[in-house]
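Bug #77: duplicate submission created two jobs. Keeping one. Sequence:
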Amino acid sequence: MAIDNNRKEMLRQAIYDYDFPFVTFNFADARETRYSSMRQVETEIRGQLLSDTPDSIKDGFSNVLYWGYARTGYRWARINDFRNKATTEKLSQAGETLRGLSRSDVRQIAKLKLPQFSGLSFISKVRMFLDPANYVVLDLQLLKLRGQGQPNLFDAITSAAKTSIAVTKRNETIYEQWCGYCRQVAAREFGGIDVRAVDVERGVFHLIQTGRAHLAAEIVANL
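Kept job's structure:
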């Protein structure tokens, strides 16, 4: 179902206004790197994750955490836990897995059992950074769309605790549907060039973050 013009323009503006920090961290030089767009962040992290060097892969996963926890006070606790526990063997295995993904494969990433990457929220962030034109994030914030008076696919999420979304076969299916819906909207409503699947998801996320969850639920209900 198409989005009406009014909601479409609100979503377009939310995509434009998305303001999550455009940052990564240079672990070799111990300094933050700031960018002018998320596309630059994506390029940096994707290159690290797809590297065949364990240290670069380690930095890639660390930067998923650095970016994802940018607005929290416990960012470094999560990063340090990952960096202290991720072994070279595990990182090499992770690199092989990421380079071989063909679908969403979030359960394949979960099977790596990397510290800090057990829930769907951050595993989907990894998948998104590998291919943002086709894959998006299924963040806990999206669960705020439940109970807004508009039935949507997030109603069917199972095992959703306050702090994580379990990686299950059912939840992977919902994640794949969410990616598909975002791809469809990007192509149907925005031409699929300047606006990609991940941009649609970020627009919905921004609406939730700015107190417009009801509007976001109306948009998602019409996907």
